[in-house]
Amino acid sequence: MAPTILIVGATGNTGRSVVETLPELLRDTKLSSYRILALTRTKDSAAAKKLAEISGVEVAEKNWTDIDDEWLRQHQVERLFIASHNGVSHFAEESQFHYFALQAGVKYAVRISTTAYSVKPVSCPCQICFASEAANTYKGLRSFLPSRALGD
To answer: Is the pLDDT of residue 149 over 80?
Structure first.
């Protein structure tokens, strides 16, 4: 099995864009052999089915809060992008997930949080919130991939 890039929240607002963009970003780089694993709670959803059609993307059905270090090692996860929920238990669940990632030897992680407020550009009088969120997502992706891999 090839080393894996795990996308947590793959069918959400931000995660879906990452999954759709990542195969093209990785093409002709030293990371092109990496497996892209898009995590969803339901493989039967329309969004998950659409992601499954993307060449180089594998969709896995699992709640990220049920993932432990053994699962991460079994799937050879070396890099992860997490766009998790913002529920009441968010911080405890994400802290546990990051602990397992450390235990499993995950080398790189990008974490982003989006809320309805920052996802919708009409939420604030100017589009600063939306633009800031988009810029942070791009910076996160760029830092996630070594500049050598992208030919920078």
So the answer is: no
Number of H helices and E strands in the chain, helices first, is 7, 5
> Are 116 and 85 in contact, with CB atoms under 8 Å apart?
no
Angstrom distances, CA of residue 2 to CA of 37, 60, 109: 11, 15, 18
118: left (phi over 0), alpha (psi -120 to 50) or beta: alpha
**Which segments within 9-76 are labelled E, that is strand?**
35-40, 57-61
Q: Which of the listed CATH numbers 3.40.50.150, 3.30.70.100, 3.40.50.720, 3.40.1620.10 matches domain 4-150?
A: 3.40.50.720
Give the pLDDT score at 123. Answer: 44
Rounded CA separation 45/54 (Å): 15
**Residues recorded for the chain:** 152
Joined tokens for residue 46: 């329309």
Average pLDDT estimate for 88-103:
83
Question: Whose CA is closest to 114, among 37, 9, 29?
Answer: 9
Each residue's pLDDT tens digit, 59-91: 999 998 899 999 999 999 999 998 876 666 677
CB-CB contact of 26 with 32 (8 Å): yes
